[in-house]
Design brief:
The complex is a heterodimer of chains A (270) and B (322). In chain A, strands 1-2 form a two-stranded antiparallel ribbon. Chain A is mainly alpha-helical and 270 residues long. In chain A, helix 5 crosses helix 6. In chain A, 73% of the residues lie in helices and 1% in strands. Chain A has one domain. Chain A is globular. Chain B is 35% helix and 27% strand. Chain B has eleven helices and 14 strands. In chain B, strands 6-7-8-3-9-10 form a six-stranded mixed sheet, with helices on both faces. In chain B, a hairpin with a 2-residue loop joins strand 1 and strand 2. The chains are: A mainly alpha (270), B alpha/beta (322). At the A-B interface, helix 1 and helix 4 of A face helix 1, helix 2 and helix 3 of B.
């Protein structure tokens, strides 16, 4: 890293990052099946659970339908699923695919993280935006301000979960390992985020897990933004607390990813 | 063809006493060599001989545990960014995005090397012309044949006019015609800018076409010279005797012609001799009833490998670094 070539920041960081992000998006748009995976799964679960649980699930004090309650959680699921689908490709790509060529190019490792995360975040937010059109089905009628705030919250949370996905994927040697982490870590993070049930009715231990879970703050942030409230009633979190923790989560995940990508391989990658 | 190699200036690639271990398995042990500017250099060895580990070290993806390597005078570890900008790397497994077009792949690669705008567009056309694929520029890579995809890989690595091209088993999965085509394009590109080429291979004829060959066996560099000089080490031609019982016959031949070196290879007896036709006649006279055939051959790199290592060229996957 001790080269002194002309506009280093631009040629080693911004241009490669922009190019990687663009490739991510182009590639996605040419694989229609991925759209179904990332939007379809949360959509189906949202509709089936919402319809099936219906009135047997009473969100006490909140006075909402389950479809309405779980709507912000479905948005968070879309963001997380898109991040997972985008990042899992890194693992095979590094040892025998596209990423090999990136690794031997004179680009800053930060460019790889930023490009990949930016591209995946655009995809995640784009898909969540499509899902946002279904808000009236959930009985929600957000105004312009709420929509703008919801987008800001979605962008922030998508960067955080894409960073998380990158950090995990970069350290994995096989996609099977990633699936294991997905089942043991990522899915519980989503389940315990207030996306599907509020804190109020949960046992003490679960409440603590939910408080320690950074996803909880992201989901609360989206719910508060969408409903235009200063406090998310499902978790009792103040919107500023939710924003602060989500911001910190985002920064930490990006920092971890950049550190992981910058570390030199001690062993052959394959 | 004997080409005299003169390294008058600093070597383009310098490998100095490199060792690498995976746990208690040695992949490379004390390997040193130099490659001059404009040379085509082959690392020849079976799978597991350590050449892939060395390729990863030279391509800056793996740091040597001891020893050092430099490219164009820059250290592959401490000055890796400079090394990366001077080097083109063709991997054994494809590194193209098959969902993108040929042009999109090359444009993306150019961005990684700090190229952009009109000058990049020009380089892309130049590279596509060099590999004769200008007419497929806007086709998705997945619609191209394996041979064409390999040529796109080459075009991608020529974009930034590298001083050194390193290629890992570039002929893998190519039929002989596509392989010849790839090599003639590679040699053309090399002639144009005096590009130094280092290629790993397990194919004798591929190594034979290079200026110099380094033979690897079990992590060690066992010989390094021009193909002709290596073959001359054999000191004559090779006589191969196909027979029913090679062990017995090998011993008897060794007993009868004490000054000859007999090796059993693949159920046959192989003998190096400065006067092969005479030896063949003698063998037929003395053991004619027991042999199926006697073949006289000019030494090949395979013979050199056997000569240097005492065993035949085979995969040693148990020691493998794949």
């Amino acid at each position: 890293m001790n080269e002194r070539e002309a506009p280093v920041a631009r040629s080693r960081l911004l241009t490669p990052a922009w190019s990687l992000a663009r490739r991510e998006i182009t590639r996605f748009l040419r694989q229609r099946s991925r759209i179904i995976g990332a939007v379809g799964t949360p959509l189906i679960f949202w509709l089936l659970f919402g319809g099936g649980i219906g009135s047997s699930f009473k969100v006490e004090q909140l006075g909402e339908s389950y479809l309405e309650y779980s709507y912000p959680g479905a948005i968070a699921s879309i963001l997380l699923f898109t991040a997972i689908f985008s990042m899992i490709s890194i693992i095979d790509d590094r040892s025998e695919g596209f990423m090999q060529g990136v690794l031997v190019a004179p680009v800053s490792r930060m460019a790889i993280v930023l490009g990949k995360v930016a591209g995946a975040s655009v995809l995640a937010v784009g898909q969540a935006a499509i899902f946002l059109l279904l808000a009236p089905i959930a009985g929600l009628k957000p105004g312009l301000l709420e929509i703008v705030e919801t987008f800001a919250a979605m962008i922030l949370l998508s960067i955080a979960v894409c960073g998380l996905g990158f950090w995990i994927a970069w350290r994995m040697e096989s996609t099977q390992g990633f699936h294991a982490v997905m089942n043991v870590v990522l899915m519980p993070m989503l389940a315990l985020s207030g996306a599907f049930f509020p804190m109020s009715g949960a046992s003490r231990a679960i409440v603590w897990l939910m408080r320690l879970n950074p996803m909880t703050y992201g989901v609360s942030l989206i719910r508060a933004a969408l409903l235009g409230k200063g406090t998310d009633e499902a978790t009792g979190l103040n919107v500023m607390t939710a924003l602060g923790v989500t911001l910190a989560f985002t920064i930490v995940m990006l920092a971890f990813s950049i550190r992981a990508a910058s570390r030199e391989a001690k062993h052959a990658l394959a | 063809m004997i080409r005299k190699i003169t390294i008058d200036s600093a070597p383009m690639i310098n490998v100095s006493n490199i060792s690498f271990r995976y746990g208690d398995r040695t992949a490379l042990s004390g390997v040193s060599f130099e490659v001059g500017a404009g040379e085509a250099f082959a690392l020849l060895g079976p799978n597991g001989s350590g050449k892939t580990t060395l390729f990863r070290i030279l391509s800056t993806l793996l740091a040597p545990q001891s020893g050092s390597a430099s490219i164009d005078g820059l250290d592959v570890v401490s000055q890796r960014v400079g090394v990366r900008s001077r080097m083109g790397v063709v991997f054994q497994s494809p590194s193209l995005d098959v969902h993108l077009t040929v042009r999109e792949n090359l444009t993306h690669a150019g961005h990684l090397y700090g190229l952009s705008g009109a000058s990049l567009a020009e380089r892309v056309s130049e590279s596509l012309d060099a590999v004769r694929l200008a007419n497929r520029a806007d086709d998705r890579v997945k619609t191209l044949s394996g041979g064409m995809q390999r040529r796109v890989e080459l075009a991608k690595c020529l974009l930034h006019h590298p001083r050194v091209l390193i290629l890992d088993e570039p002929s893998t999965g190519l039929d002989p015609r596509a392989r010849d085509e790839f090599w003639s394009l590679l040699n053309e590109a090399r002639a144009q800018r005096n590009t130094t080429i280092l290629v790993t291979t397990h194919l004798m004829d591929e190594a034979d076409g290079c200026d110099r060959v380094a033979i690897f066996d079990r992590g060690k560099l066992v010989a390094c010279d021009t193909p002709d000089a290596l073959k001359r080490r054999i000191g004559g031609d090779c006589v191969t005797v196909d027979c029913a019982d090679s062990s017995a016959l090998s011993e008897e031949i060794a007993g009868r012609f004490a000054d000859l070196k007999c090796t059993k290879v693949n159920g046959m007896v192989r003998i190096e001799s400065p006067n092969a036709s005479r030896l063949a006649t003698d063998l037929l006279r003395d053991f004619g009833d027991r042999v199926r055939s006697v073949t006289i051959g000019r030494p090949t790199l395979h013979d050199v490998f056997i000569h240097e290592t005492g065993h035949r060229f085979e995969d040693e996957t148990r020691e493998g670094d794949q």
